[in-house]
UniProtKB/TrEMBL annotation, chain A:
Coarse class of the protein's main subcellular location: nucleus
SUPFAM superfamilies in alphabetical order: P-loop containing nucleoside triphosphate hydrolases
Domain RecA family profile, chain residue ranges per copy: 87-276
GO molecular function: ATP binding; ATP-dependent DNA damage sensor activity; crossover junction DNA endonuclease activity; four-way junction DNA binding
Pfam families noted in UniProt: Rad51
Key word rRNA-binding present: no
Protein name as it appears in the record: DNA repair protein RAD51 homolog 3
Top-level taxon of origin: Eukaryota
A GO cellular component entry from the record: Rad51B-Rad51C-Rad51D-XRCC2 complex
Keywords: ATP-binding, DNA damage, DNA recombination, DNA repair, DNA-binding, Nucleotide-binding, Nucleus
UniProt lineage: Eukaryota, Viridiplantae, Streptophyta, Embryophyta, Tracheophyta
Job of this protein: Involved in the homologous recombination repair (HRR) pathway of double-stranded DNA breaks arising during DNA replication or induced by DNA-damaging agents.
GO annotation terms (biological process): meiotic DNA recombinase assembly; reciprocal meiotic recombination
Organism (species): Aquilegia coerulea
Recorded family membership: Belongs to the RecA family. RAD51 subfamily.
Automatic annotation (TrEMBL), chain B:
Protein name: RecA family profile 1 domain-containing protein
SUPFAM superfamilies to which the protein is assigned, alphabetical: P-loop containing nucleoside triphosphate hydrolases
GO CC terms: Rad51C-XRCC3 complex; replication fork
GO biological process, one term: double-strand break repair via synthesis-dependent strand annealing
RecA family profile domain sequence ranges: 10-200
Keyword annotations of the record: ATP-binding, Nucleotide-binding
Upper taxonomic lineage: Eukaryota, Viridiplantae, Streptophyta, Embryophyta, Tracheophyta
Name of a matching Pfam family: Rad51
Superkingdom of origin: Eukaryota
Molecular function (Gene Ontology), one example: ATP binding
Organism whose genome encodes this protein: Aquilegia coerulea
Length: 349, 298
């Protein structure tokens, strides 16, 4: 059992790995005092880490072999699922406040929908996630690859390059290196590598989009290290040429089911970017995400990006386990970052 | 279906013919993308489109696309006299380029030969045109390939025909998405730069401030009016980048010789990024002169 599977914060994981604690068994016979010294953290924090490690040893099926037999093959008890959920990895958004309301980042195994008006930063967030998923394991990331499905043509390689460069810069800054390691690390992290690890598909019609999503399963089976699928945007091709709205709903929910299945079976994150539209209710126009009411069931999580004064905010609108909350973020030349005014308080609703 | 290699996929840009504007736009108008310029009438959107028709003919080494271009206009009349005037100054300022690249026919190189103009009067006509434009782009009546489409303006096609009823609005937005997706398909297939211009409408009330706010700028002001781009939210979803041109009139004390300072009044024009995937929130002042549109370095 690896340390990187522990439900710890990325920095803690990185510290453990760089101090040489790679397996959980290596943590089994160490005192909090020693661990605190090795990781240069407080004794309290070290004790916390050991506690979590101890809990997961108890959960580890290889050690504790209780005979849970599913009623049907593939069936699981809720306890099993809860246990597994602790090891679900998350992809950071590079904005601490945003990560906080999302419970640590974009969840793998789940479909997350992100919507907002043009210019709010949907594509920027998509690119940021495609870069961040590639942060190496020893830096607290996933070390995965990304699939980027572009339906709108807003994906700009020069921007990906910028964001990747800034991401590398930040990673190198946040770690303390010996001179030699620094060089090695610097060489291993090139923006070009980040670009080659993004599988980019441009689709020009909704039939192409559906065909591609059907093909994804095969593609991901061949490229197991894909950890995120981003569709920018899921909406565009479905907003023309559909006179038969019932057909549209069927096609869309079929697509959503496939994406959910992908997310579960390959343990990857699916991020769907959506546009907003005005909806006529009770005599007034209101803004909602596009594709209608039935589509809102299609995603596990839903995040709405909006303007508040001159600041960008994200609002967690739907989540099975987290409470609704909003947090500011900003779009900078480096990508998505903490809002510049740096108001730390997060409004809980 | 194969993923594309991002390392070979850098976006080509078409120069605007002015270094300051190019720097502001990080190289010019991007290919394989729809760029929209929004402004009230008389700000210079047609001027910059005409200039682009010419600068796209520059060879790639000079920031152009070495291409001919298609100008689809819905506002009358087509400003051919101004285009002719611009083409003369374009030729004289790029004399070395065109004399060296086609040495035999240098004297006969006429930029106007590589600009194709077509008028459309309704959205349906535009869709019909776009549907059969493939053949034209594949075999253009010019030695240069077509790499630039300018539509001036998209708003004029939609401003008369549609009622403000839910049914008509729905039909209208469906047309937007249809046009946008056809343009994007063409842009992808032939690696075209697409520029569309749009008009503004006055904005009232405060719903615009947060809910309906599109892009980086809280409010757009031009000539002291608060405006927002025409065609609403659904069209905003259709374009990749949106630029906004504004002007304001300033009274200066004495008359000067510059063309822009007539009668002691100076017009300041500004180009701003409303949203774009590759550009930060920024703005750039520009002037419209006899020779064309030029950015003012700050």
């Amino acid at each position: 059992m690896e340390v990187c599977n522990l439900p710890l914060s990325p920095t803690q994981r990185a510290k453990l790995v760089s101090a040489g604690y790679t397996t959980i068994s290596s943590l089994s016979s160490i005192s909090p005092l020693d661990l605190a010294r090795d990781l240069s953290v407080t004794q309290n924090e070290a004790a916390q880490i050991l506690k979590i490690a101890l809990q997961s040893t108890r959960f580890d099926p290889s050690i504790n072999n209780n005979n849970n037999v599913g009623i049907v093959t593939g069936g699981q008890t809720a306890w099993d699922m809860l246990r597994e959920e602790q090891f679900v990895t998350r992809i950071t958004t590079s904005c601490e406040d945003l990560d906080n309301i999302l419970g640590g980042g974009i969840n793998c195994q789940e479909v997350t929908e992100i919507g907002g008006v043009p210019g709010i930063g949907k594509t920027q967030l998509g690119i940021q996630l495609a870069v961040n998923v590639q942060i190496a394991l020893e830096c607290g990331g996933l070390g995965g690859k990304a699939i980027y499905i572009d339906t709108e043509g807003s994906f700009m390689v020069e921007r990906v390059f910028q964001i990747a460069e800034a991401c590398i810069e930040d990673l190198l800054e946040s770690r303390v290196f010996q001179q030699k390691d620094y060089q090695a690390c610097r060489e291993s992290m090139q923006p070009q590598t980040f670009l080659t690890n993004i599988f980019y598909f441009r689709v020009c019609s909704y039939t192409e989009q559906i065909a591609l999503i059907n093909y994804l399963e095969k593609f991901i089976t061949e490229n197991r290290d894909v950890k995120i699928v981003i569709i920018d945007s899921v909406t565009f091709h479905f907003r023309q040429d559909f006179d038969d709205l019932a057909l549209r709903t069927r096609v869309l929910s079929g697509m959503a089911l496939k994406l959910m299945k992908l997310a579960k079976s390959f343990s990857l994150a699916v991020v769907l970017l959506n546009q907003v539209t005005t909806k006529f209710t009770e005599g007034s126009f209101q803004l909602t995400l596009a594709l209608g009411d039935s589509w809102s069931h299609a995603c596990t999580n839903r995040v709405i990006l909006y303007w508040n004064g001159s600041e960008r905010f994200a609002y967690l609108d739907k989540s099975p386990s987290l409470r609704s909350a909003s947090a500011p973020y900003s779009v900078t030349s480096k990508g998505i970052r903490v809002a510049s005014s740096h108001c730390k308080k997060i409004r809980m609703m | 279906m194969k993923p594309e290699n991002l390392l070979n996929l850098s976006t080509q840009k078409c120069t605007t013919g002015c270094l300051n504007l190019d720097r502001f736009l990080s190289g010019g108008i991007p290919c394989n993308s729809i760029t929209e310029i929004v402004s009230e009438s008389g700000c210079g959107k047609t001027q910059i489109s005409l200039q682009l028709l010419l600068s796209s003919q520059l060879p790639i080494s000079h920031g152009g696309l070495s291409s001919s271009s298609l100008f689809i206009h819905s506002e009358y009349p087509f400003p051919f006299r101004r285009l002719h005037q611009l083409s003369l100054s374009f030729l004289s300022s790029n004399l070395n380029v065109f004399s060296s690249s086609s040495s035999s026919s240098s004297s006969s190189y006429n930029p106007l030969d590589h600009i194709f103009v077509r008028d459309v009067q309704s959205a349906e006509e535009l869709i019909g045109l776009l549907a059969q434009i493939d053949r034209f782009i594949e075999n253009p009546p010019s030695p240069l390939p077509v790499r630039l489409i300018v539509i001036d303006s998209i708003a004029a096609l939609f401003r008369s025909e549609f009622d403000n009823t839910p049914k008509d609005l729905k039909r209208r937005s469906s047309l937007f998405f249809k046009i946008a997706s056809m343009l994007k398909l063409l842009a992808k297939k032939f690696n075209l730069a697409v520029l569309v211009t749009n008009q503004v409408v006055d904005s009232m009330g405060n719903d615009v401030v947060n809910g309906m706010r599109v892009g980086n700028l809280g409010c757009l002001y031009t000539s002291g009016r608060r405006v927002c781009p025409a065609l609403g939210l659904s069209w905003a979803n259709c374009v990749n980048s949106r630029l906004f041109m504004s002007r304001s009139v300033e009274i200066v004390g004495k008359e000067t010789d510059l063309e822009e300072h007539i009668g002691g009044v100076r017009t300041r024009r500004k180009l701003q990024v409303v949203f774009a995937p590759h550009l930060p929130d920024s703005s750039c002042e520009f002037v419209v002169l006899r020779e064309g549109v030029f950015g003012v370095s700050s």
